[in-house]
Amino acid sequence: MVEKDGILWKLLGREHKEIYRRRWYKFKSNPLSVLGLGIVATVVFSAILAPYIIPYPESVGLYMNFTEAFQPPSLKHPFGTDSYGRDIFSRTIYGFRYSLLLATVVLSIVVVPGTILGMIAGYYRDTKIETAIMRLTDIFLGVPPLILALAIASVLSPNLINSMFAITLMWWPWYTRLAYSSTSAVVNEPFVKAAQLIGAGLKHILFNEIAPNIMSSILTKVTLDVGWVILIGASLSFLGLGAQPPTPDLGTMVAEGAKYLPYYWWPTIFPAMAIVYIILGFNLLGDGIRDALSSD
Amino acid sequence: MSEILKVISLTKHFKSSVGIVHAVDDISFSIEEGKTIGLVGESGSGKSTTGHMIAGIYPPTRGKIIFDGVDISVDANKRPLSVKKKIGMVFQDPSTSLNPRQTIEDIISLPLKVHMRITNYAEMRKTVRELLEKVQLPPDFMNRYPRDLGGGERQLVAIARALASEPTLIILDEPTSALDVSVQAKIITTLLKLQKEMGLTYIFITHDLSLMRNVADKVAIMYLGKIYEMADTQNFFEEPLHPYTMMLISSIPTLTDEEEKIKPRGIESLGEIPSAVNPPKGCRFHTRCPFAREECKTNEPKGEKIDGGRIVFCHFWREIKYKLTTNAPEKI
Ligand SMILES: Nc1ncnc2c1ncn2[C@@H]1O[C@H](COP(=O)(O)OP(=O)(O)OP(=O)(O)O)[C@@H](O)[C@H]1O
Ligand SMILES: [Mg+2]
Predict the structure, then answer these.
(1) In a designed cystine with B246, which of A177, B5, B153, B264 is the match (CB 3.0 to 4.6 A)?
(2) Which CATH number goes with the domain that contains B279?
(3) Parent domain of B57
(4) What is the ipTM, given to two decimal places?
């Protein structure tokens, strides 16, 4: 095979600059999309730079300073301090790292195999292969997501790795289903028939004919899912099945702080708002990407 | 001249929710190398289905397809690569037959990779450029996407792709009907030029009988899955024998009085095409035929061979011809 560009470029369609410019213009013209991009950028940058920018690096770990406990928000501690006297602002910023780590790990494991399974099922419509794959995804999708993750996480010992594992296991079928329906819409197109008649192999048809045509919906879903994976992860942590204290995980922080509600509200509200902030950002960004991609 | 393709009793039935669709029923014909056969008929007559079986999109329900002496009555993925190389297909609508996410270069290079074993990038580009030249498109089109091209240009790309594997037979399924009238002629002349240069054999599918006059060597008229008349093009327009053929020819708009004069009279388009799920018994055309008699409703007409490879499927073609040429009253 003659390869003149990377596979990713190929999947994205290797379209010329003009199209990217048009997409960017479309994206830019919606202020909400730009807001989403802004939010995501702040989250990503503060997660990466967290160790250097947080005012109280020692607050991230097992640090106790009871004289400073439950300080309300002030200039010194913008988000206040928790029951151990740790700076909640520092912990929240650091919490972005865990959230993004979770989403990155889960999605990078899930997207490719889930999508390929879905493409195979869509390509082999009306065969046993389709039935087998789609039954399996139906089984996974039939169980409410949080319940499944809860079941898995509670069988295994509660920690960040196992909650990642639980979410991974429940997340792939969404990609299979999406890729399946997008592939089904493409597979009967004459250009696929043409490639088959020429004698192209399965690999070519899946990756060169079909994949570039379903990539935009997959890409949009990935962006939207970052928020949802983080939310599920936070829910598991909140229920005590995810990252354990003293890890500055946003869900864990919400759970710990909840004990002191409503009198000390800040240990709960600020991490909770951070979760909302991340989800909002990725949702706005995802919607913007979808609109931009659907313009061509 | 040798026979390159022969189909024998070719039949395709589709299962559908309303019953079995008799898309193609027991048709036979053959083509000589370097010639064009036109498959003509109204919508739903089974032209595309015939083309698809020969191309290998799906296998026939019954019957045989013999190509170059080899039985290829299976779908494409069961055919040897050497057969796929030799049969090309051009679809009706180039806006769906070219992948919108691939460059023209990607599109044309697929058959080169599969059949011509070209793996050297420079050689690949050179070959793509030559193919574009062959269909009279500028070489810099190869970096473009189908959406950047006009309909006619896209169809020329589809033709270049079909040529890339150096086929001997090309199936053209209404290659101009999705295009602007202004570019149709260009596509046709290009196809004819290529045929002459490369000795290609065409199966030309169309519902536009008038097109066949300049393109086809032989025309087969299809109606509801059956061939009702087949003849060399010359004879065909001069002396159509089957009432359905006459009906088709009389519906061609004429430009000159002279054309009007030689048009067969007395045959007007009658009624709607019946469903292919329950095709009429006997002669399938009898529900629309102004000459139909009792026998037509029960007995299927056998093909009657007439001089020069001509064949007509009608119980009463002689009488009809006699009546019409002597200008007798319409009823017989
Ligand atoms: N895959 C299929 N499943 C079921 N029925 C089909 C299928 N393909 C074609 N048919 C039916 O078979 C008959 C012949 O169809 P075909 O497409 O061959 O006609 P055609 O002569 O090419 O007509 P057109 O001019 O509309 O393209 C029609 O009644 C059509 O509905
Ligand atoms: Mg057709």
Answers:
(1) B264
(2) 3.40.50.300
(3) 1-86+167-332
(4) 0.89
